[in-house]
Amino acid sequence: MAVYGPHCLNQGKIPTHVAMIMDGNGRWAMSQGQQRTWGHNEGVSSVRKVVCYTNTLGVKYLTLYAFSEENWKRPKAEVDFIFSLVARYLKAEIEELDRQNVFVAYIGDFSKLGDDVQESLAYAQKRLSKNTGLTLIIALSYGSRSEIVHACKSLLVKVQSEEMGIEDIDQEAFSRFLQTSSYPDPDLLIRTSGELRISNFLLWQLAYSELYFSDRMWPEFESWHYLEAVAQYQQRKRRYGTIHSH
Ligand code: FPP
Fold first, then answer.
1. Domain count of the chain?
2. Residue 146 phi/psi, 5° resolution?
3. Across 121-136, average pLDDT
4. Are the C-beta atoms of residues 135 and 62 closer than 8 Å to each other?
């Protein structure tokens, strides 16, 4: 087996934006004879490590898929547990995130979130608002198709009010209506747990991203697995449909 360490990355380009589908918490917990919630709890340790490591690598944007629109179909107790974990993580880690100069942002439909959760998110955002290092984007109650439909509606309002003409609509103009408008598209998507799907995550934004699937469950995803993903990314030739690599 190849041994991966930071030396593997000396030659190549570090991705600007890494997106992650943190999958496998439940299965990992069951395999340990524990409840699914235990897996989410351990998943927070992976989040902590991944954020720190992302910073070390010099990646500028990290988007984490913490809760999908479809996840609302889970039992209420599990849903509440995941949101309380996110709120607790932001509270417990706020000093450390600040020390690491992390800026935090969110994408998703927050209208369904409880007031207490919304307050925790807003507090962390405000507290870290002056930071200029890594931008940590947490996707919560997020669904990419809904985001696209919402963007279409906002765009139509502009056309109806004649602030925009149909001829002004191109890919760049459209992407300004997405919640991710301030961030570059992900260079690398990592999904854990061996599932080979995108699961309604950043469908527009992932058009040219490199995809990496790890067999590790999210709670077992360590810094060397992350390095392995970045090392593979560095081997890929990104041609964006042309014959030249970038
Ligand atoms: C997917 O595993 C994981 C989730 C739906 C929740 C992810 C949440 C965290 C890691 C904790 C909080 C996040 C932050 C940003 C602090 P799964 O339950 O679908 O696992 P399974 O596929 O094995 O059932």
1. 1
2. -65, -40
3. 98
4. yes
Q: Is residue 43 one of the residues assigned to a domain?
A: yes
Q: Return the ∠ at Cα 221 (arms to 128 and 225), rounded to 5°.
A: 105
For residue 13, give the CATH number of its domain: 3.40.1180.10
CB of 74 within 6 A of ligand 1: the answer is no
Does 93 reside within a domain?
yes
Going by CA atoms, what residue is nearest to atom 5 of ligand 1?
A: 67
Dig out the tokens for 164 from the structure: 């925009």
Q: Is 37 in the pocket of ligand 1 (CB under 6 A)?
A: no
Using alpha carbons only, how large is the chain's radius of gyration in Å? 19
Q: Which atom of ligand 1 is nearest to the CA of 68?
A: 5
- Tell me whether residue 168 is one of the annotated catalytic residues: no
Write down the catalytic residue from 10, 25, 71, 116.
71
Is 30 among the domain residues? yes
Quote the domain boundaries for residue 165. 6-235
Q: What is the pLDDT of residues 4-37, one digit of tens each?
A: 555 556 568 999 999 999 999 999 999 999 999 9
Evaluate whether residue 240 is within a structural domain: no
The reported pLDDT for the residue numbered 241 is 82
Mean pLDDT of 60-67: 98
> Of 67, 65, 126, 57, which is closest to residue 97 (Cα–Cα)?
126
Query: What's the pLDDT at 1?
Result: 43
55 carries an active-site annotation: no
Q: Are 147 and 107 in contact (CB under 8 A)?
A: yes
Residue of 22, 71, 220 best suited for mutating to test ligand 1, as the one with most atoms within 8 Å of CB: 22
